[in-house]
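Example 9 (inverse folding). The structure is encoded as follows.
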């Protein structure tokens, strides 16, 4: 008798404990900086350099620096535009494959001080586009990142060890002089237009080992521990495997890390990630607002429309990736007026689409709840750190939202609490219409979730919505479900 009373008491205590403790994390897990990075969702890319003035995409490293001659350059105008377009940061191409640097690097003569640009000077009295960008980012509250191309067609020693030493020094210079960087972009390109490696000849390199990536990563992280390192295989975030801004369905934030390297040939795998990956390396969708990365006058008529940019948003942020939107700076040295208008309108569309969460006023019930702290009400409280969770051992479940009256919806947004891992393998959304539950048709597979998943569908009018989670890697930890009526 006594024993069983004690046992029951202990059991109550244990259950009480489980009710109030979060589910155990399920790896691979994001680093806190990766979670903060993912929350940025959209940020700008800037391609600007000698290519801009020579109508090229991949200069050979022999264009005259004097041809860089903007007529009314205004870095603040770039950053103001990005801000209005809802971008949370900007990554600038500090050096593209032609080797020309936008900052006054003392390691090469092929730099901005040899150009015709005569703008504001840095603290050493030199023109310095990166210093201008740092100032503007600080003024408007955007984060800054840099792209430093490993491939360099200007450097005479490219292909030899001397170039690698130069690249490491150049990177050190960059990461120690321009304040905190949220991302460092390591591009994987190395030829493809008939010339590999050097300027107008072939210089083959061992892509996997030549640049000494472990050393590159340690240089970056020593000076910029908060930076996310981008490359085909991370380690901070990964290329999505295409340049049209489309993440996969499903999209896992994991990779088998040691398999992927810059220039990795199986890039289609990067679109969905590796479901059995061992490391958290989420996808970033890089795409240009124009066909080219650099400005070409003939592309003034080919700027992506606000609606096309909105589609890309749904295919990137809406599929658990970030959206890196490139702005080719024009020959005046500004974000071109067409690009700027379209980007700002794009943001308005997204804000209008996702304005009012109609589930906030709906009644919510869940198949099971871990404990009071993990109630299904957390799904609509607008807080990041509260979430609905199921008990240990319960890896499936469903939540139902009931409206007071029939309600029209055409968007559904879901978020997992990713600090505890990406768990949901599959989910389904049904609406109660004509007296029965019917799956909604988002025109694509439901897929998985991760940081964010947004479904778009033809408007339905319904009294209830049910989200079922038939397959998960562990107990469910969902921190947000929202429904909207975009009417578009
Ligand atoms: C590619 C480069 O070759 C393009 O020129 C551009 O910079 C793009 C973002 O990455 O790999």
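The amino acid assigned to each position is listed next.
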């Amino acid at each position: 008798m006594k024993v069983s009373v004690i046992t029951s008491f202990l059991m109550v205590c244990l259950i009480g404990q489980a009710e109030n403790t979060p589910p155990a994390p399920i790896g691979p897990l994001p680093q806190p900086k990766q979670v903060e990075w993912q929350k940025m969702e959209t940020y700008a890319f800037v391609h600007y350099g000698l290519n801009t003035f020579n109508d090229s995409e991949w200069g050979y490293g022999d264009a005259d620096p004097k041809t860089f001659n903007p007529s009314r350059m205004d870095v603040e105008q770039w950053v103001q535009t990005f801000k209005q377009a809802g971008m949370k940061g900007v990554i600038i191409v500090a050096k593209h494959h032609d080797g020309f640097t936008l900052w006054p690097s003392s390691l090469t003569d092929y730099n901005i001080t040899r150009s015709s640009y005569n703008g504001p000077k840095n603290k050493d009295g030199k023109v310095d586009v990166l210093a201008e960008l740092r100032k503007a980012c600080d003024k408007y509250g955007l984060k800054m990142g840099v792209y430093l191309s490993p491939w360099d067609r200007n450097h005479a020693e490219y292909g030899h060890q001397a170039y690698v030493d130069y690249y490491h020094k150049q990177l050190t210079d960059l990461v120690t002089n321009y304040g905190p960087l949220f991302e460092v972009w390591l591009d994987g390109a190395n030829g493809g237009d008939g010339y590999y490696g050097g300027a107008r000849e072939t210089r083959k390199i061992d892509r996997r080992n030549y640049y000494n990536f472990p050393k590159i990563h340690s240089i970056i992280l020593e000076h910029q521990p908060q930076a996310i390192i981008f490359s085909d295989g991370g380690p901070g975030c990964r290329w999505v495997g295409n340049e049209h801004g489309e993440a996969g369905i499903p999209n896992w934030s994991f990779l088998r890390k040691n398999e992927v390297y810059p220039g990795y040939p199986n890039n289609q795998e990067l679109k969905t990630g590796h479901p059995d990956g061992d490391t958290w390396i989420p996808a970033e969708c890089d795409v240009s607002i124009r066909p080219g990365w650099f400005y070409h006058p003939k592309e003034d008529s080919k700027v992506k429309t606000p609606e096309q940019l909105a589609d890309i948003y749904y295919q990137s942020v809406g599929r658990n990736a970030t959206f890196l939107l490139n702005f080719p700076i024009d020959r005046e040295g500004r974000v071109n007026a067409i690009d700027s208008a379209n980007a700002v309108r794009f943001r308005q569309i997204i804000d209008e689409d996702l304005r009012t969460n109609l589930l906030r006023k709906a009644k919510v019930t869940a198949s099971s709840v871990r404990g009071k702290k993990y109630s299904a009400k957390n799904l609509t409280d607008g807080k990041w750190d509260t979430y609905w969770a199921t008990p240990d051992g319960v890896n499936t479940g469903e939540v139902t939202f009931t409206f007071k009256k029939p309600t029209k919806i055409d968007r559904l947004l879901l978020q997992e609490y990713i600090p505890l891992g990406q768990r949901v393998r599959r989910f389904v959304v049904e609406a109660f219409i004509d007296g029965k539950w019917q799956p909604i048709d988002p025109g694509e597979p439901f897929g998985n979730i991760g940081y964010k998943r947004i479904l778009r569908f033809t408007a339905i009018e319904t009294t209830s919505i049910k989200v079922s989670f038939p397959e998960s890697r562990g107990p469910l930890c969902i921190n947000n479900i929202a429904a909207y009526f975009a009417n578009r």
